Amino acid sequence: MACNIDTGRTLPCRDSVGGLKNVYFINYDAAASLPLVTTAGSEDTVAFDGVWDATNYQYALKGTSSLTTNIQASRENGTVAFEQVLELTLPKLSKEDNYQVKLLAWGRPRIVVEDYNGNYFLVGREHGADVTGGTIVTGAAMGDLSGYTLSFTAMELTPANLCTGSIASPS
């Protein structure tokens, strides 16, 4: 495997924005196989197909949710891993959502993250993502959050893969 970089990067246009629009939870064992990873040059992408249409669950987002990838490198050990951290804020409490939060905490879903730039990222492709923290909070003042905060962490060999195709027809 070649470890040398093979391209440069110019200063991009200022046409992107921050923030997440939706997440799509996919039960770890829901699909018969993972979506196809394709390599174009040195770029790994994930291509979705119809098998995922009936097995993802969309959660709409607004506000303070984010996806961060931390590079975990050890010079001494000669290793590199990518820690994918997804922080979600889900307003409004309900008994139905309490149950789903419990199932998310017990499981290790794969998660497709959609940002406001039209990008889709697959978190936890190989190993799934674990809930590593969160809160169920009523808030104290009238303007406080009454809802859920969830932290998901996935440790993978690559950053969250960019996706091509469509994760259409979510549940």
How would you describe the overall organization of this protein?
The chain has one domain. The protein is 7% helix and 44% strand. The chain has one helix and eleven strands; from the N terminus they run ββββββαβββββ. The longest helix has 12 residues, at 95-106. The N and C termini lie far apart (40 Å).
Integer average pLDDT: 86
Which H/E pattern describes the elements?
Answer: EEEEEEHEEEEE
- Round the Cα radius of gyration to an integer and report it: 17 Å
Per DSSP E runs of 2 or more residues, the count of β-strands stands at 11
In which order are the strands of the major sheet placed? 2-3-11-8-7-1-4
The first-to-last residue Cα distance is 40 Å
> In percent terms, what proportion of residues is strand?
35-45%
* Low-confidence runs of at least 5 consecutive residues: none
Largest sheet geometry? 7 strands, mixed
Question: Notable features of this structure?
Answer:
mainly beta, four-stranded antiparallel sheet, seven-stranded mixed sheet, 44% strand, 7% helix
